[in-house]
Design brief:
Helix content: 40-55%
Order of helices and strands: HHEHEHEHEHEHEHEEHHHEEEH
Domain Lactate/malate dehydrogenase C-terminal: 182-346
Bound molecules: 1,4-dihydronicotinamide adenine dinucleotide, oxaloacetate ion
Catalytic activity: (S)-malate + NAD(+) = oxaloacetate + NADH + H(+)
Number of strands: 11
Shape: globular
Organism: Iris pallida (Sweet iris)
Radius of gyration: 19 Å
EC number: 1.1.1.37
InterPro entries: L-lactate/malate_DH (IPR001557), Lactate/malate_DH_C (IPR022383), Lactate/malate_DH_N (IPR001236), Lactate_DH/Glyco_Ohase_4_C (IPR015955), Malate_DH_AS (IPR001252), Malate_DH_type1 (IPR010097), NAD(P)-bd_dom_sf (IPR036291)
Strand content: 15-25%
Amino acid sequence: MRTSLLRSMESALRRSRSGSSHLLRRPFASSSAVPERKVAILGAAGGIGQPLSLLMKLNPLVTHLSLYDIAGTPGVAADVSHINTPAEVKGFAAEEQLGQALEGADIVIIPAGVPRKPGMTRDDLFNINAGIVKSLCTAIAKYCPNAIVNMISNPVNSTVPIASEVFKKAGTYDEKKLFGVTTLDVVRAKTFYAAKAKVPVSEVNVPVVGGHAGITILPLFSQATPATNALGDEEIKALTKRTQDGGTEVVEAKAGKGSATLSMAYAGAVFADACLKGLNGVPDIVECSFVQSTVTELPFFASKVRLGKNGVEEVLGLGPLSDYEKQGLESLLPELKSSIEKGIKFAQAN
Ligand SMILES: NC(=O)C1=CN([C@@H]2O[C@H](COP(=O)(O)OP(=O)(O)OC[C@H]3O[C@@H](n4cnc5c(N)ncnc54)[C@H](O)[C@@H]3O)[C@@H](O)[C@H]2O)C=CC1
Ligand SMILES: O=C([O-])CC(=O)C(=O)O
């Protein structure tokens, strides 16, 4: 997946540099090779939003890129729009333009909201971000009820349930189209595993299940490929802990200037690319994501998901777990349950 996204982007860059691409010479509306796809980014001028806008502008599957933020959008949109790739860029700056930003969107990516500072948990963001997510999802229900929604705003374990409740109230909920973006956990698990197991990072795959906060992030290193016997129990524990604390590692390193933005933009672009490929009918697109689920007793859970023309095509099971992973699963369920319930309660009360 990672390599296929890089290949697509490299080829877009090559085409834009050589100016020889037929895609660049002819208007997209008349291109039969690539279906029209509008991607909207809400929170596009933020730390994640800006590099994510750049990466989506480089994605050859995007024909229309709609950038919305309550501050700073005109600059970001003007800047990104000068890049000579086919996606047509439009910026929307004020709340009264949110409808236009969303209309016709196939995918809406939401990195709007405040990030952590050192000493905070993701749940500490709930009070501010819950309201932001609720109002943005209300607009999605109105202006693009059929869009796929990629939720990045934290706490994902609660913001996804909030979105589901907003859509249910509006009568537009489609569980196949709502995704909590947990790709950064997979990106981290792959990077850390490759370094420890001394295997090429581009070949590595590691499923990460559960949720997206602390111990609710459960990497399944027993299923990592390429498999290795080189890692003992203590090393697997250390890798698990580093993956669970990856966000905090960045928050502390940034020392008050926010949380992961560049690696998150990359992860968000990987996941959106997978959704676009699914929509376009590319077979066997599988990514981990926090979705409505029956894999455990909880109503939402992150696991491998097969993506297709309607969003989720199949939520895949957990596969065989090691004893250590079974314990991790037992331990995460109560915290994840309460974060999910907190989101549902908030959306029902407001
Ligand atoms: N799912 C994941 O793996 C990750 C999630 N995050 C989360 O992503 C969120 C954004 O992080 P950053 O980009 O670093 O924050 P940031 O503060 O740099 O950017 C957030 C942007 O959202 C905008 N915004 C605020 N209210 C809005 C509204 N009502 N409508 C549209 N835009 C609005 C702000 O103007 C700002 O430009 C945070 O909640 C953070 O915790 C961050 C990293 C990883
Ligand atoms: O840690 C944070 O606050 C941001 C985040 O979700 C991550 O980097 O995984």
